[in-house]
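wait is this the right file?? whatever heres the structure
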């Protein structure tokens, strides 16, 4: 019965509620996720986001520290968003430690970093901790977490190791603790995101600020292989990482060799691929339009933008038009858009 409902949900979205085919613009909007300013409906920026959500101009929103003060406030904010768009992705970066939005005591935190968890807690205790984290997020209305980090700990990393974001330098240990994280969140009905493919741990640069290069290793891929093979991987975030010997001209985010050839064909991942924030410096110096087109043609599904506006223009409007123009100019095929739309809507059917 549950399988039937899932198929029916996807079929309805494939045809549209009135039986008509879904428009290209509607499909493209599902491929965009934006950040925004404000923490309540009293903020003009928040109201602008709500208006766009109501018109389904994007498929998801990401919550940053600027959007969170305490549990009651966050719950009210998300309630307002879901009233406008019930099936919208509401995502948050909640890893614990340095990358946490749940710092207020009302969230039953603060929560320790991944490295601290794997260094001090057994698996059962880690699962219990992440269950508490997931329960608090669920009570607020969060349905997607941009975690766990499955990069390998490397002391030379200024953005992963220095912030204790990785569980361990050992891939097998990362797998075990990441599984505990994902299982705890699945129990609460919250989707998780493996990041940063194909492995940010070995980079000596912060991809938020600079070009980041990595050498691909079998160990770095092990957590992804495990999560894919066990059915735990639903969303994978691709990092702005130039992979030596595979594609030194494009970051993984824009690389067909990384997303299609490696992740989809070799590792057999059929789920949703999301970019890291497309406004980070590490994604390169090409024009925004070039980056968007490359990401989609590489096999990516959701474009993530931390800002609601780019150069005073609403991000969702700007990116939607870039994609539609690219389709009309045959730089992106309609089939490529359809593939992403189907993957995204299949995932939303799980919410």
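ok assuming it is, sequence goes like this
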């Amino acid at each position: 019965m549950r399988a039937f409902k899932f198929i029916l949900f996807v079929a309805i979205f494939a045809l549209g509620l009135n039986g008509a085919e879904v428009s290209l613009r509607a499909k493209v909007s599902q491929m965009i996720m934006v950040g925004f300013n404000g923490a309540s409906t009293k903020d003009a920026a928040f109201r602008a986001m709500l208006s766009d959500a109501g018109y389904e101009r994007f498929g998801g929103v990401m919550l940053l520290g600027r959007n969170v003060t305490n549990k009651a406030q966050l719950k009210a904010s998300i309630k307002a968003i879901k009233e406008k768009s019930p099936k919208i992705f509401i995502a948050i970066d909640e890893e614990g430690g340095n990358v946490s939005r749940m710092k207020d005591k009302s969230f039953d935190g603060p929560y320790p970093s991944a490295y601290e968890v794997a260094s001090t807690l057994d698996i059962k205790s880690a699962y219990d901790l992440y269950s508490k984290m997931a329960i608090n997020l669920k009570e607020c209305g969060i349905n997607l977490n941009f975690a766990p980090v499955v990069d390998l700990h490397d002391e030379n990393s200024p953005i992963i190791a220095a912030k204790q974001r990785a569980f361990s330098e050992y891939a097998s240990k990362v797998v075990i603790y990441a599984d505990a994280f994902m299982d705890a969140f699945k129990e609460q009905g919250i989707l998780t995101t493996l990041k940063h493919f194909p492995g940010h741990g070995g980079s000596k640069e912060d991809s938020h600020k600079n070009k980041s290069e990595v050498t691909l290793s079998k160990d770095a891929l092990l957590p992804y292989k495990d999560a894919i093979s066990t059915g735990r991987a639903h969303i994978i975030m691709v990092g702005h990482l130039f992979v030596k010997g595979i594609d030194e001209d494009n970051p993984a985010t824009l690389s067909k060799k990384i997303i299609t050839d490696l992740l989809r064909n070799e590792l057999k991942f059929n789920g949703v691929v999301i970019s890291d924030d497309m406004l980070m410096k590490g994604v390169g110096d090409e024009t925004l339009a070039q980056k968007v087109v490359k990401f989609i043609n590489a096999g990516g599904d959701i474009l993530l933008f931390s800002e609601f506006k780019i150069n005073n223009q609403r991000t969702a409007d700007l990116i939607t038009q870039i994609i539609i123009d690219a389709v009309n100019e045959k730089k992106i095929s309609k089939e490529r858009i359809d593939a992403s739309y189907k993957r995204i809507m299949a995932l939303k059917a799980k919410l």
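The chain has a mean pLDDT of 93. so i think its the right one actually
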